[in-house]
Design a protein that fits this description.
This protein is of the alpha+beta class and about 325 residues long. It has ten helices and twelve strands. It has a five-stranded antiparallel beta sheet with strand order 1-2-3-5-4, covered by helices on one side. Strands 6-8-9 form a three-stranded antiparallel beta sheet. It has a two-stranded antiparallel sheet with strand order 7-10. A hairpin with a 3-residue loop joins strand 4 and strand 5. The chain starts with 15 loop residues before the first strand and ends in a 10-residue tail after the last helix. Bound molecules: adenosine-5'-diphosphate (ADP) and magnesium ion (MG). Magnesium ion binds near residues 25, 154, 155 and 200. Adenosine-5'-diphosphate (ADP) binds near residues 27, 105, 199 and 202.
């Protein structure tokens, strides 16, 4: 069924006018829509209740293990979350066929697209972006006991369309033009790179008991592997944060291969390099930080607090998010 504007109509979503498609993941369609009651613009994530497998989806990089996404958990977790660096869930509803997540609208789209557009980010711009993400992760890990498990540039969204320098002005040049960079990074004057928020809790998991503020399970009877599991599952977000930071700074990911088997092997061995010439101009401090995140042993990998204490992160005020 199609509406006049060629957008699909969903049963149970009559309160909204669907305006345009904003994205599609393997399991969902996301639309820009308007709440006809309040006039508010929102994003609606429509998730089919009966999911397709990776072959039907045609994504060779999709891990078949994640075929069944626990959507009930996605909604339950998002309901308990309230942080400026995390996309808000306004409402939830469902029909026989679909789940509908009514979300805070992120007009600026994916960080992924900005990396593609800009090739790579200057260090201070990367810092501005990554610190916002890190504060969101700190809140999830330390205040909500939630592990995201799918941190990647496609799931990090800009609140507004960022003002980006033209192709003729590669971002690295902004390092020398302090004034421009200030405006670009802080988002003053209605432009800039602005706010970045974490989206897509489709794979997230609660590792804490909300009531007892301890790892899930009965206090005193919790086995050490459960306590360790909590710590290790948080460390998956830290690895992913390292991958995002690496990609922001040079424009390509630390691990890549056409073959998923080769790629899996490279990741398992933690096999990456700071490839010359791309990494030649990047600070030793940034490389040191990445080394502590892309560290195969989860026990030695930085926690979010260690990350935030690193000198590379402390080079600017802790929360440089611009006023709105
Ligand atoms: P999936 O679980 O299928 O990956 P996501 O929640 O990641 O679903 O949404 C898929 C895509 O839709 C995102 O990568 C992004 O491009 C877009 N999107 C998701 N949420 C929003 C939002 N709140 N505002 C704008 N675009 C969004
Ligand atoms: Mg996604």
């Amino acid at each position: 069924r199609q509406a006049k504007n060629n957008m699909p109509q969903y049963k149970g979503l009559e309160r909204y006018r669907i305006l345009e498609k904003m994205g599609d993941g393997a399991f969902s369609n996301v639309y820009k829509a308007q709440d006809l009651t309040t006039g508010q613009k929102v994003a609606i994530k429509v998730v089919r209740k009966y999911e397709l497998n990776s072959q039907q989806v045609g994504d060779k990089h999709l891990n078949p293990q994640f075929k069944k996404k626990p959507r009930a958990t996605e909604v339950q977790i998002m309901r308990g979350i309230d942080h400026p660096s995390i996309v808000k869930l306004y409402a939830f509803s469902e029909s026989a066929e679909y789940y509908y997540l009514i979300l805070e609208l992120m007009e600026g789209g994916e960080l992924f697209h900005q990396i593609v557009k800009l090739t790579y980010f200057s260090e201070s711009l990367a810092r501005h972006v990554i610190l916002q993400v890190a504060h969101g992760i700190r809140y999830m890990h330390e205040e909500r006991g939630v592990v995201h498990r799918d941190i990647k540039p496609e799931n990090l969204l800009f609140e507004r369309i960022p003002i980006v320098p033209s192709k003729l002005l590669p971002p690295r040049q902004f390092d020398e033009e302090k004034e421009d960079e200030g405006e670009f990074a802080s988002g003053v004057g209605g432009g800039g790179i602005g706010k970045v928020k974490i989206a897509d809790f489709g794979l997230s998991k609660i590792v804490w008991d909300e009531q007892t503020m301890t790892p899930c399970g009965t206090v005193g009877y919790t086995a050490p592997e459960i306590v360790k599991d909590e710590r290790y599952s948080k460390s998956v977000d830290m690895w992913a944060l390292g991958c995002v930071l690496y990609t922001l700074l040079c424009g390509f990911p630390p691990f890549y291969d056409e073959s998923i088997n080769v790629l899996t092997e490279k990741v398992a061995r933690g096999h990456y390099t700071f490839l010359s010439p791309w990494w030649d101009g990047i600070s030793a401090s940034a490389k040191d930080l990445i080394t502590h995140l892309l560290c195969v042993d989860p026990k030695r990998r930085y926690t979010i607090d260690e990350f935030l204490q690193h000198e590379w992160c402390l080079a600017v005020p802790a929360e440089p998010a611009p006023p709105t």
